[in-house]
Design a protein that fits this description.
The protein is mainly β. Helices cover 14% and strands 47% of the residues. It contains 3 helices and 10 strands, in the order αβββββααβββββ. Strands 1, 2, 3, 4, 5, 6, 7, 8, 9 and 10 form a 10-stranded antiparallel beta sheet that branches. The termini are far apart.
């Protein structure tokens, strides 16, 4: 009799546990860590913009020229460290990537990634319109805008390094460290003070990202 009761309870527990639904834990969603920073000497003054400090952050943008296939479309990629509190900002641009927009309004991920890792884009030339080449735009404390010039007679160099390419549900990114030296020249905004129609950027280090 005792054996029968034990068997009954064993069977009951087996049925009970077999009905318990096991929790399915979803796989973690990837999240790209994005932290920007700029340091350098601008017009003889040490400058530093840090992600999250004084509302500074990095904003990536694209300037696309979409053409009908079989003509190739193109895009220039920009990355700007700016603040919602202060006017001081710095932006770099690199272009141009080409692709057939007949298949997609954006270049494929492989084309996007390859563009930033080619030797000609790791050590690009200065070019006013980034087609192809590199450009710097600096905005001072009153909103005066200065840009680099490919015809500048002053020393200028540029190098991209620490290139890391990652993706998450929010997009595809090409993270980088950009080091450069150049002069930037008055372009627009409030007129600069006499003798400040051009200013020097020394030992610029821009840590940011481009977005597809």
């Amino acid at each position: 009799m005792k054996f029968g009761k034990l068997l009954f309870f064993t069977l009951a527990l087996s049925v009970l546990f077999s009905c318990v639904k096991h929790e399915v834990i979803p796989a973690p969603i990837p999240k790209v860590t994005l932290i920007s920073k700029f340091t350098g000497t601008i017009n003889g003054v040490s400058v530093e913009y840090n992600e999250g400090v004084d509302n500074y952050t990095c904003i990536p943008t694209q300037d696309k020229n979409l053409l009908t296939s079989p003509s190739l479309s193109s895009a220039i990629y920009y990355s700007e460290i700016l603040s919602s509190t202060y006017k001081n900002a710095i932006r770099i641009g690199l272009g141009k990537v080409n692709w057939d927009a007949g298949t997609s309004s954006d270049p494929s991920l492989s084309v996007f990634n390859s563009f930033f890792t080619t030797s000609s884009n790791i050590l690009p030339h200065y070019k006013d319109n980034c087609m192809p080449g590199f450009n710097v735009k600096y905005t001072d404390e009153v909103g005066t805008i200065y840009t680099s010039r490919d015809t500048s007679s002053q020393f200028q160099n540029i190098k991209f390094s620490n290139m890391i390419q990652e993706s998450d549900p929010n997009g595809d990114y090409s993270k980088f460290l950009c080091t450069f030296n150049c002069y930037v020249y008055y372009a627009s905004g409030p007129a600069p003070a006499v003798g400040l129609d051009s200013i020097q950027i020394q030992n610029g280090q821009f840590k940011g990202w481009f977005k597809k």
